[in-house]
Amino acid sequence: MFSPSKCKCVTILLAWILALNFNAADDSSCSVTVDISDGVVEGANITKDGVTYMPGKYFEDGTTIKGCVCQVKTCLRRCCSSNETLTESADGGTACEASNSSVDVLQGLQAVSEANVSLFHIISVPAREVCHENESKIFVDSDVEIASSGDLIWGAETVFSFDQYCSSIVDGHVGFVVCVTADLTLNAIIYCIGMIISMPFLLITFLVYALLPDRNLHQRALMFYVLSLLIAYILLVTINLAPNIPTWFWCKFLGYSTLFFFMVSFFWMNVICFDIWYTFSGGRGFMGSKRTSERRRLIFYSLYANGVPLLIVAWTYGMQISLPNECEHNPGIGVAKCFLATGWASLWYFYLEAGIVVIANITFFILTALRIRKVKQETSMLKHNDSKRHTYEKDKQKFNLYVKLLFAMGVNWSMEVISWLVNWNTKSEYQYIWYATDFFNAVYGVFIFFIFVFKKKIWTLLQRRFNWKMSQETVLTGTSPTPSNVSNSKSTLP
Question: Residues in domain G-protein coupled receptors family 2 profile (predicted)?
């Protein structure tokens, strides 16, 4: 028979054993603790500051009793202390600066949570420990809700856990710095591989045409097209392989630059298609000599191919600053990632423009093909005029060359738009089907190289160019060339 005193001792002993068991189980998951050594002990429970810690919610650490506060209250990380605000430092990191705002994070929480603010436990996080090294920072200040679990819900869909965000006062109201890990998808990896393969071929194509002795308008337009596409590829690969750009400014700068150079490449291709149609339709061009006319047309085309993309970028930026971040029509450049957001943003600010340009290019080629067919039916007239027939045959060869380019570009970008639409509507459920088309679209630079560079005529022109340089070097060194050498030198001048 147990006495009451013995029974009490046994009860305390059992409670202590249970507490040890719970402590051992929860110690590893207790990331945030408070000192409750001076709390009020009520049986196996410890109460401090109105918060009761049951067994398993606290543990002993030497002579100190620590309570797992985030297991009994909703923890919220504050980016800085109560009288500071988070700013971006010069080196791309984050820093806390003194703030004159009278608004505290707890006061601002009432607007983002239905829970009583007394249920929150605020933890101040050092400015440089807000996010991990492999994470990017984005700032949200609207359409935000704090769940009782401490998770931040943004836009009713995106959920960030307690350790993925912190709160800060900005412009007199509460906002949240969210940490985003930009993991590369398989589709993005395939794209990066394809674009990296394309880069040297695009560069070689540009350099080869830059070295040609006589460049006409089409060749110059091709150079600008290849160069803009190369820069766009470099920027997009940089964004994908280095997703955690150090500053918000550089992230947005890279995003808008990528959009601009992709648009420039689209519109230079549009220039090429238009000019071929214009040539076959009998356009007279600008007044003056052929060289002067081409120079003026090139200036006009340059204003078009660079001006329209600039307007598109300006429109995109205007929409970004006028629409809230959580709006699905917001471009989202530099928000969750450096380039355009998925969904409607990709449609309005990229694929719509790309689709319109591709349709216009195909239309120009159809009109040009019809014109060629009409000219073929008039071959009897051409036979009586060898110069006209020679010009026609030369233009026809040029057209056939660019037909290959259009076929490659038209098919690739058409499949790109279709794959994007399917993935968007099916939430990427069948995206593996489009891996092959996406890869071939990314290695488009290889096709350009073999279409425009891997030709005997181009290598002959390059040989002529380098022979001309060698002759000039001979003159500069003071060597007296033989008459035959002089004759050859003159014959190789462009």
Answer: 187-456
